[in-house]
Write a structure and sequence with these properties.
Elements (H helix, E strand, L loop, with lengths): L4 E4 L4 E4 H18 L4 H11 L3 H25 L5 H27 L3 H36 L13 H5 L7 E4 L4 E4 L1 H17 L4 H12 L3 H25 L5 H21 L6 H26 L4 H41 L1
Antiparallel strand pairs: 1-2, 3-4
Length: 351
C-alpha cells in the first residue's frame, strides 16, 4: 500500500495522498457554502493525516488563499459581498494575524504548539456549536410564540440578537454598510476582525470559523451576506498568511497544490448552493459540521494522553474527519441539485 503515500519534501513526512484530495474537494464545497476557507476542518485534518501542527497551519493557509479567491468571485456575482465592510475589517485582520503567527513560532520553539492549538480549537468549536444551536432554539421559540398569538412570523427575525445591543454604541466614525443593511460604529467590525485575525494566525484558519458567526451575531449581517463578505476576508488574510508562513518555512507546497486543484471545483458548487439553501438551513448544517470536527480533535488528544489507544483511535479520527468532509460536501451538493431542479421546473411552469 506504499503507493497510497507520498513524501512531503519540506515537512519530511509521508502522507496518505487520497486524503489530501478528499480534503481539497470536500472543503472546497463546504468553504464555498459556509463562507469560510474551511481551514477549521483542514488544519486538524492535515495534522491527523500526519503533518506537524506548524506545517498543517502554514500549508492550509496557502491552499485556502487560492480557493477563497475563486469563491469570492462567485459570491460577488450573487451580490453577497459587502466590499466596504470587508475593506474596513482588513486593518484588524492583518494586525491580528501577524500577532497570532508570531505566537505559533514561539509555541513551536518551546515545544507546546500541538497541545495549545488543539485546546484552543476544542474550546472554540464547542462555543460555536453552542451558539449556533442556541440561536436556532431561540428562533424556533419566537416562531411558536408568534403563531400562538396569531401574528405573522418575521422571516428576518433571529434568535440571538447581540448585534442590536452593540449597535447602540455610537463611537465615531459611524458607517453605513449597504449590502449588509447595517449602520454601526466602524470600531465594531475592526474589533471583530482583529480578534478573528489573531485566531487566523494562531490556528491556521482564515478566521471564518469565528468571523462568519461574528458578522451575523455581533455586526448583524444577513447570513448570505456574512458568507460572501467572510470569504472576501478569508481571501485577504489567506494571501497575507501564505506569504508570512512561506517566509517562515512552514508551507508544504506539494500538499497545497494537490488540495487546491480539488478545492477550485468544490468552491464553485458550494457558492452556488447558497442560492438555494438560505438562513437557518446554513446555520444548522454549520453547527453539525463543527460538532463532528470537535469530536475528531478529542479522539486525537486521547491518543496523546493514552498512547495505548493510538493504534485504534488514530485511524478512527482520520476516517471521521474525512467522512465528515465528504458527507457534508455530498449533502450540500445534493441540496444544490434539488434546488436547481425546482428553479428550472418553476421557470418552465411560468413559460
Amino acid at each position: 500500500m506504499d503507493w497510497l503515500y507520498i513524501l512531503m519534501p519540506i515537512a519530511g513526512v509521508k502522507i496518505f495522498w487520497p486524503g489530501l484530495i478528499i480534503l481539497g474537494i470536500g472543503v472546497g464545497v463546504i468553504g464555498g457554502f459556509f463562507g469560510m476557507g474551511g481551514a477549521w476542518m483542514v488544519t486538524p485534518g492535515l495534522n491527523i493525516l500526519g503533518f506537524p501542527m506548524a506545517f498543517a497551519i502554514g500549508t492550509d493557509i496557502a491552499h485556502m488563499a487560492g480557493k477563497s479567491l475563486i469563491s469570492t468571485m462567485r459570491h460577488g456575482k450573487f451580490g453577497n459581498v459587502d466590499y466596504k465592510l470587508g475593506f474596513i475589517m482588513l486593518f484588524g485582520t492583518i494586525a491580528g494575524f501577524e500577532i497570532g503567527a508570531q505566537m505559533v513560532m514561539w509555541l513551536e520553539r518551546i515545544g507546546n504548539v500541538e497541545i495549545v492549538v488543539r485546546w484552543i480549537y476544542l474550546f472554540l468549536l464547542t462555543f460555536i456549536a453552542w451558539l449556533v444551536f442556541h440561536d436556532v432554539s431561540k428562533r424556533k421559540a419566537k416562531d411558536r410564540a408568534a403563531k400562538a398569538a396569531g401574528r405573522e412570523v418575521d422571516a428576518l427575525a433571529t434568535g440571538v440578537e447581540w448585534h442590536k445591543t452593540l449597535h447602540k454604541i455610537k463611537i465615531p466614525p459611524m458607517v453605513h454598510l449597504k449590502e449588509a443593511g447595517v449602520y454601526c460604529s466602524a470600531w465594531l467590525p475592526i474589533f471583530v476582525s482583529f480578534f478573528t485575525g489573531w485566531l487566523a494566525g494562531i490556528l491556521g484558519i482564515g478566521g471564518g470559523l469565528i468571523r462568519m458567526p461574528s458578522l451575523i451575531y455581533l455586526v448583524g449581517c444577513p447570513t448570505h451576506v456574512a458568507v460572501g463578505t467572510d470569504l472576501f476576508e478569508v481571501m485577504i488574510s489567506g494571501l497575507y498568511g501564505a506569504g508570512s508562513y512561506t517566509a517562515k518555512g512552514r508551507v508544504e507546497l506539494v500538499a497545497a497544490i494537490i488540495m487546491l486543484v480539488g478545492a477550485a471545483v468544490g468552491a464553485q458548487v458550494g457558492a452556488v448552493a447558497t442560492k438555494y439553501i438560505k438562513g437557518y438551513g446554513i446555520r444548522v448544517a454549520f453547527g453539525l459540521a463543527v460538532i463532528g470536527c470537535a469530536t475528531s480533535i478529542v479522539l486525537k488528544m486521547i491518543t496523546q494522553w493514552y498512547p495505548a489507544t493510538k493504534g485504534i483511535l488514530d485511524p478512527v479520527s482520520t476516517v471521521l474527519i474525512l467522512a465528515l468532509v465528504f458527507g457534508m460536501a455530498l449533502y450540500i451538493t445534493l441540496k444544490m441539485v434539488a434546488g436547481a431542479k425546482r428553479e428550472i421546473a418553476a421557470k418552465k411552469a411560468r413559460a
